[in-house]
């Protein structure tokens, strides 16, 4: 009976797994760096997002091919939930093939009054990998 319990525990551990499972990275591909300077400016009924193309180390990271802009809109009741993650959706996919590191980037979005707006970016590398989120900007117009 003891042996059966031990075998059962080992099998359960193998099924559940040990450690944290991450997205696979193909050999030879490097993740892009994250944007760290996402900022915003409200202009009437619109917001202007701005950021810089991150500098990358070719030995450790890949360059930016595209930027995904993600937005979450929440009502006051939804935003009051401190444990609920904002429901981000991709609203734009902006190419950046000719941009050099440090180049400014901008994106304009229409605001919906009375909602909390949260934005973040993901850089997409040459191989389509988008791993790291930028800093988040959030506000209620």
**What is the distance, rounded to the nearest whole angstrom, between the alpha carbons of the first and last residues?**
65 Å
CA-atom Rg in angstroms: 20 Å
Strand order of the largest sheet: 4-3-6-7
What summary fits the major beta sheet? 4 strands, antiparallel
The DSSP helix count reads: 2
Query: How many strand units?
Result: 7
Q: What structural category arises from helix and sheet content?
A: alpha+beta
Question: What fraction strand?
Answer: 25-35%
SSE pattern, N- to C-terminal: HEEEHEEEE
The gross shape turns out to be flat
Topology, element by element:
Layout: H1 2-16, E1 39-43, E2 46-52, E3 66-74, H2 76-80, E4 89-95, E5 104-110, E6 116-124, E7 137-139
Antiparallel strand pairs: 1-2, 2-5, 3-4, 3-6, 6-7
Structural summary, described in words:
This protein is an alpha+beta fold. The protein has helices spanning 2-16, 76-80, and strands spanning 39-43, 46-52, 66-74, 89-95, 104-110, 116-124, 137-139. A four-stranded antiparallel beta sheet has the order 4-3-6-7. Strands 1-2-5 form a three-stranded antiparallel beta sheet, with no helix packed on it. The longest helix is centred in the first third of the chain and has 15 residues, at 2-16. The protein starts with a helix and ends with a strand.
């Amino acid at each position: 009976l003891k042996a059966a319990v031990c075998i059962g525990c080992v099998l359960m551990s193998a099924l559940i797994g040990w450690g944290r499972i991450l997205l696979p990275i193909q050999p030879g591909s490097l993740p892009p760096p994250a944007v760290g300077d996402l900022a915003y400016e409200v202009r009437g009924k619109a917001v202007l997002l701005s950021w810089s193309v991150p500098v990358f180390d070719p030995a450790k990271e890949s360059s930016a091919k595209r930027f995904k802009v993600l937005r979450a809109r929440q009502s006051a009741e939804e935003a009051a939930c401190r444990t609920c993650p904002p429901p981000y959706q991709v609203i734009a996919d902006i190419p950046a093939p000719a941009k050099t590191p440090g180049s400014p980037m901008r994106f304009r979005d229409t605001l919906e009054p009375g909602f909390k707006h949260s934005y973040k970016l993901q850089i997409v590398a040459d191989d389509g990998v988008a791993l790291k989120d930028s800093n988040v900007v959030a506000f209620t117009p």
